[in-house]
Amino acid sequence: MVENLNEVKSATLAFLGRIWEENYLKNRNNIRRTPGVKNLFDRFKNLPSIVVGAGPSLDRNIKYMQYASGKAVIIACDTALKILKQNGVKPDIVINLDPQSNVVNFFEEIDTREITLVAPTIAYPPLREAWKGHFFFYNKNAPDIPLLAGIAHEHRELGLLTPGGSVLSVAFDLAFKMGADPIAFIGQDLSYSADNAYASGGHYTGYKSEQIFDIGGDNIVEAADLFGRKLKTQKSMFVTNEWFKWAFERWNGDKKRTIYNCSEAGILTSCEQSTLSDFVSSYCRKKLNVAWTIKKACK
What we know:
The protein is an alpha/beta fold and 299 residues long.
């Protein structure tokens, strides 16, 4: 675990370090006049939340999301936004982590006026002006990376979210800090099936698993899935899976939450397993005014 984590961190720093610094310097003025994610903390205590990834398993159960809409706080990773919208579901919050310019492709032809974006201080700068809905900045919680630690110290008022190797870890951290309970995952494969690498309808539609497996180097490892089978995955996603194990044990000590993996596939085995239909019928029963709560948090 430690060896893989260090490898992932080193590769990320080498590839993105300069982009982080350049993006932050361009974002500074916007950061000063934009609310921080801390404003959302504890706003949704004891309310159900669904964290949506773009793994291939999403194709199986996205049909049940229409019954959760308006009855749970729906937090989507940016790559899942188009998929949800194409299936008639509007997420309440979208999470961004990737600082590169290609993230704008995730939001093409999407009306964002009624959706909230939560993005890091090192996000791709044009995002802030292009996004029409509510917007919150967060600091990446990375005390071992001097650049990010320095930015977080300068903007302590914004609040921290923890990147555990994936945008999905940031989304879970937000759900947890907002006080959500229970929390469900869907599209959270953290691995690849023999066919498609991502769910249908998103920016990566048609991208095959074998295209990832064919990439050179030692980036591909194996992990056991829910049924004990060995699946291939990238080291970054393997690290994310290990991070979730740590988070579930560490964070749930004093603030016990009920956490379900409703993906019905993949390698996330360290929490309770359920179907999304059962989660929705059990917990998504009351109408929630999420938009009003978020609007209050902007003030």
